[in-house]
Amino acid sequence: MQMQKKYMQQCISLAKLGFGNVAPNPMVGCVIVHQNIIIGEGYHQQYGEAHAEVNAINAVKDKNLLKESTLYVNLEPCAHFGKTPPCSNLIIEYQIPKVVIGCIDSFSEVSGKGIAKMEKAGIEVTVGVLETESLELNNRFFTFHTKRRPYIILKWAQTQDGFIDVDRDSCSLSGAEMEQPLDNWITTPSSKKIVHKWRSQEQAIMVGTNTAFNDNPQLNVREAEGKNPLRIVLDLNLRLPNNLHLFDKTIPTLVFNTLKNKTENNLEFVKIEKDHLIPQILKELYQRDIQSVIIEGGAQLLNTFIKENLWDEARVFTGIKTFKKGLQAPQINKKATNINTIETDILTTYHNA
User: Fold this and answer.
1) Are 159 and 322 in contact (CB under 8 A)?
2) Would you tell me how many other CB atoms lie within 10 Å of the CB of residue 331?
3) pTM, whole model, 2 decimals?
4) Is 93 one of the catalytic residues?
5) Which of the residues 41, 53, 76, 296 is marked catalytic?
6) Alpha carbons 74 and 82: distance in angstroms, whole number
7) CA 74 from chain center: how many Å?
8) pLDDT in tens, 206-255
């Protein structure tokens, strides 16, 4: 069993190399072992390209050894034709006698079908090695398919005295109108780079009307390498000015509103009803195959997700600044799952069971 865990851990480590590049597919790593020696390994590198099992089998120089080998993979091999042929068919074709799986695939097109197909072909299948770790690795994928909504990450920065923003009553201009941005930045440059890296790992990022108006954010990954996420803004009455960065059409952007449907280049307006806003938005994102979204503010939008219990993870930075007065930060009534120090900032992570 310890050897099985060892090889499955290698599968998980390989799978993580695809983080941010394979969605809406899951992250998968595969290791092929012959007489306690790894003879092939691979991972799913890019959405639409070869799966982990294919890459691992292709890496084996002497294909005759496959008939005497064990294939390890953190997720059940697929049994359907999608962007690529079924991996379970390939495993059967090469007569690999044993397959060890981390967890079953919750996607309806797979869910147990890959295992059944391989067992029918006489392959010995073991399921559940490092199952918890395998499930956690693809929490976005599983949340999407079981809850029929994206995996939701709440993120904000707050001061030592619990404020998310300065007192705006004394500020007459929005972030889009100011020549010099308002000094409401709370965290260090290192934390900013981490946030931009997070953005590159998720499919979408969302802000509310007030945050878009006051801060004029770009919501891109200019401080890190990787893909820009889909930008989303909630602007029910379409009161935001056109000169905001969000409307520069450089990145695909959705504007949820109650007035119109319209598409122009990278800018799309999506009409929704005033009641049950968040469920409507999540349904629309689900239909667009968006598996993860970061909610970056403001306080009203964050509090709405918290109140409706529609969140999976919260990442909260606490800086060393104090504002003395301003906009109160949201409250998470959960025990922290992780606390890290980043220069002078404290990063606290929560998970919603």
Assistant:
1) yes
2) 9
3) 0.89
4) no
5) 53
6) 19
7) 18
8) 999 999 999 999 999 999 999 999 999 999 999 999 999 999 999 999 99
